[in-house]
Structure formats: C-alpha cells, structure tokens
Amino acid sequence: MEFGILGSVQVCDARTGQRIVPVGAKQRALLGALVAKAGQVVPCERLVDELWGEHPPANAANALHAHVARLRRLLPVPAPGPGTRRHEGLVTRPTGYVLRLGGTDTDARRFTRLAAEGRALLAADPARSARLLREALALWRGAALQGSGRGAICSAEAALLEESRLVALEALYDACLRAGHGREITGELEELTIAHPLRERFYELLMTALQRCGRQAEALLTYERARRTLVHDLGIQPGPTLRHRMQAILHHHDPDGSLDLDGPGPHPGPGGSLGLPVRPEPATGPAGGVPGRAPGDDSDVTLLREEIAWLRRRVERLAQEQQDLLGRLDRLMLREASGLT
C-alpha cells in the first residue's frame, strides 16, 4: 500500500490495484496532515485547526473523532511491518493520532530517495542522473496535497515538497547539459523561466543551453529579461552566478570548461555579426591594473558599471534590430498578399 500526496491525496492498494480518494475536503485534509506527519503523534488541537481553522464546531473533539473513524473505515489495513504481529495504520494516542506506515510507503518518500540518488550521480554519471531525476519527477500528479485545504500542516508540507521539486528540476537540467543535451531542453527551460520568473537558476541554465547551441544573442536577451524582472519585482540585480554566465557569453567562454567557444563558431566578426558594437577591452597597466588607479580603489566597481551599461546598449540594439526585421517581414507579407489578390 502506498499513500500519495504528490497531487491529490490518495491511497493505492497494491494488492487490488484500487486507488482510494477521500471524499470531502476535510477527509483529504485529515489524511494529508497525517501522511505529512507519518510516524509522529499529531495533537488533536493541531488537527482541529487543520480542518476548521478559526471556526471550529462547538464540540470539535467529537467532530474530529468522527472524521477519524470514517477515515479508518476508508483505509485498507496495511500489512504488518518486520517483527510485528499486527499493524493498525491510524492509531489513537492520549494527545492525538499517529499514522504508522509499517510496511507501506509514500510517493513523497520515493521521490525524495530517487531525487537524492540522482543528484549524487550528477558529476560522475550525468546521463544516469538525468534518468533517475526524471523518474522521481514523474511521480508528481499535480500540486502537492492538492485539494487538502490551507491548514498549517498541509500548507507547510506542500511548500517544502514544491521546493524539493524545483531543486530536482534544476538538477535534472544541469545533468542534461553535462550529458550534452542542451538543444533538447531549451524549450522546457523557456517555460520554466516563465512559470518561475524569480528563480535565477532556471535563467542561468537556459542561458547555458543557448550558449552551447551557438545562440549567444538569445542568451543575452534571456539575461536582460531576468534582470528586468528581478529589478521590477524585487528591486534587486541578478546574483553573481547569473552575472558570471553573462560575462562568459560576452567573452565566448564556458566557465564550466566543458566547451571551448573561442574556436570557429557564431562569434561576431569586425563590427559584430549582428551589427552590434564590439566591446572595447579595458586598457591595463604593467601589472594588469587600470592605469591611473591605485590598488584598492573602486576600479572594479567602475568596470562592472561600464560592463553593464555596454550590455544594456548591446541588448537594446539587438532588440531594435529584431523589431525592424519583423516589421520588414510584415511589410513583405502584406505586399505578397496584395499581389495575390
């Protein structure tokens, strides 16, 4: 038997193949809270709050007991665990109730095990890492604890599981990049940056995938999209990882060392292959510093500001040329349509 909370709350009986879904939000909230705290005694007060929030019934203890009794009748009796003669799944304790898993499992625990195994293989075997992570993510049927209300226990568990899912997704696409499958994942990463616009790691992975496909201009536009979103929504600039990736793209270098972008490829020629200005390299003094600036001054900050200003001009120029090209295409299509008519 397996309890499922990676989606709507349900119980799968492996002996019969039957899937049991509690009817009613309170039954789902009760089962979801008990599964989330499996093996722990959940106090009655917390369960009352989970089911009714700030408006409990007059006799909340009796109402809770009635829901527990109905849930017991709904659930199949799990097999005894190792070394035990009898196993009762939902047990009453003096202060509350506890769901004892015994020989059963939960899809959330299976997901956690598979995701951890996949992340552990990320560097050594990225192809197998990606397979394990996809297997883990395939266990999700929807939002965690979907339809279980907004009680404190279910809400907190759903948030933790969702964060674990996003971390597993980040590891999956990292593994795909390490395995050389950047072209296959750009579309999925585009969707993830739209679905999670404040998660910088998805932008960084997308920029890396685009860079390794030779689509540096699109990678730079992705950075600018991330920067504008972060500034608009959070009032912050992109973090160091995203900035380092942007710098790597500007210098045609892969900081992971897995791809040499200095050889033949879609690099801008004199004046820029897309009509963009070539970035001037800062002059250096005898020791590699900037002439006229003493060590320890604000030269690094100044250079960074110049770099950002140059990047903005470059991206704006590219965006304008893209709009011009689209306008020309529209005009050509209109002329062709007019000729046909």
Automatic annotation (TrEMBL):
Pfam family, one: Trans_reg_C
Stretch list, region Disordered: 253-299
Annotated GO MF terms: DNA binding
GO biological process: phosphorelay signal transduction system; regulation of DNA-templated transcription
DNA-binding residue intervals: 1-101
Domain OmpR/PhoB-type: 1-101
The organism's taxonomic lineage, starting at the top: Bacteria, Bacillati, Actinomycetota, Actinomycetes, Kitasatosporales
Similarity field: Belongs to the AfsR/DnrI/RedD regulatory family.
Domain of life: Bacteria
SMART domains: BTAD (SM01043), Trans_reg_C (SM00862)
Name of protein: AfsR/SARP family transcriptional regulator
Comp. bias intervals (Low complexity): 275-285
Coiled-coil intervals: 301-335
UniProt cross-references to InterPro entries, sorted A to Z: AfsR-DnrI-RedD_regulator (IPR051677), BTAD (IPR005158), OmpR/PhoB-type_DNA-bd (IPR001867), Sig_transdc_resp-reg_C-effctor (IPR016032), TPR-like_helical_dom_sf (IPR011990), WH-like_DNA-bd_sf (IPR036388)
Keywords, in A-Z order: Coiled coil, DNA-binding, Transcription, Transcription regulation, Two-component regulatory system
